[in-house]
Write a structure and sequence with these properties.
The protein is α/β, with parallel strands linked by helices. It contains eleven helices and 17 strands.
Length: 381
Amino acid sequence: MCEKLNKLINFIGRAEYESCPINKYKKEDAAGCQMLSLKKYKDFAGHSRFALGGDIGGTNTSLGIFGIKGKKAEILVSFHFRSDELNGLHYAVNEALEYARKKYHLKVSKACFAVAGCLSPDRRTAKATNVKWDVKIKDLLKKTKLKKISIINDFEAIGYGLSMLSKKDIKVIKKAKKTGKAPILIIGAGTGLGKATLIYDIHSKSYAPMPSEAGHADFAAQTQMEMDLAVFIKKYKQIRQTVSYEQVLSGQGLINIYMFLRKSGKFKETSFTMEIDASLKPELISKYRKIDKTCRRAFEIFRLIYAKFARNLALDCLAWGGVYIAGGIAPKNMEIFDREFIKIFSQSHKMSYALGKVPIYLVLNCNAGLLGAGLRSEFLQ
């Protein structure tokens, strides 16, 4: 039914929802797929209808079966795949739908997929930025049993998902009084770099997320070090065009910064750098960030650029409703969002007073996008 998919099936309830579920036990299914299960908290009874939500990123593809009560969507069971091991989204969708049908006798016919990539103007196709395949509604309707499908941007989905998060899913980074109905900014570095702005709609009396590809805007180098970094990245990655923010604020961006430091010759080789050099995994740079000087400095530069990026976009929309930092890197490296981060964020020649009014929050729930896609599926008629 699948080809060496690293499939995780997590049974979770909204009331006891884990921010990032951990492994409980592993087993192999008949097709050789690695399956990992968690305890089931909720039954499927009491829901009037069901829908499928999906969060398609450069590293992971997560799908969830949602039960709908009135106008509320509640996640009941989720499936997680490695994006680079899928040959198309329909493989994962069919796995999830077949499992729901066989295990719980559920017939799910509508879905909303949040994709890390740029949507076409008619929102019928999403070109995934860091995945080898695209998401097309036309193809999914042909290759799955779904009847109604919508596609949204991955950070657009996080915008919807914010309303489903609890207090434990949010950490305050910078205190300031929120301004009601003011714009809200969401940014986040992970496999890529995403951004969305939430604008309050006076007609629906709710926030509407505006998708963006600001992560691919030009990296605005200011200091000599930043200029040297941009020049290095262009040569290292063989980029003919300008260097984007994603090339410094992402998993690959962290590797780029690390390699910039390694090639500078200013830091001694250690057993930690030797291990990192062999695989170039950003997870290892994070793992040794407190004990290795090169890794520590890489994160200092990462923090510096992250704070400047957040400042620029907060000024762009006057995010007095708050800046929410999501993405896979932030929850695993929370200490970089410290006083120095706030200090850098607050620096502006003429707008420091405006930035002082902006609260900053860290999104700890790594499935916020999946929850948002599930909530959005409710609007499909």
